[in-house]
Design brief:
By secondary structure, the protein is of the alpha+beta class. Helix content is 14%, strand content 30%. Strands 3-2-1-4 form a four-stranded mixed sheet, with helices on one face. The longest helix has 13 residues.
C-alpha cells in the first residue's frame, strides 16, 4: 500500500515574523484603571488625573474616589461603573 507524504509548508503564513505582539493602547478604554494624584488644599482635596489631563476637587478625603471617577467618566465617555482609580501619590 503506497504511503502519501505529508504536505510541507515552504514559507510562513504571515511574512517573516511568526508571532505578532499586541501594542499597548494609549487611549482610555472600558475597565481601565486610572492613576490619580491627590493634594491636600485649604478647602479639601485637589485631584489630578494625568492620563486625561483632568482636575477635580473633593471636599472630603472619603469623596476623592467618587469625584475622580465622575470626572473621568465625564471626560472620556466611559460609564462610571467601569472606571477604576488608583491613588498613585498623596501629598498632604
Amino acid at each position: 500500500m503506497p504511503v502519501q507524504p505529508f504536505p510541507r509548508r515552504t514559507q510562513p503564513l504571515r511574512g517573516s515574523r511568526a508571532q505578532r505582539v499586541a501594542h499597548r493602547k494609549t487611549f482610555p478604554t472600558v475597565g481601565q484603571c486610572f492613576e490619580v494624584e491627590i493634594t491636600r488644599v485649604a478647602d479639601g482635596w485637589m485631584i489630578r488625573v494625568p492620563e486625561i489631563g483632568g482636575i477635580a476637587r473633593a471636599s472630603r478625603r472619603a469623596q476623592v474616589e467618587v469625584v475622580a471617577r465622575e470626572c473621568i467618566a465625564a471626560r472620556t465617555g466611559i460609564p462610571i461603573g467601569y472606571v477604576a482609580i488608583f491613588v498613585a501619590r498623596e501629598i498632604g
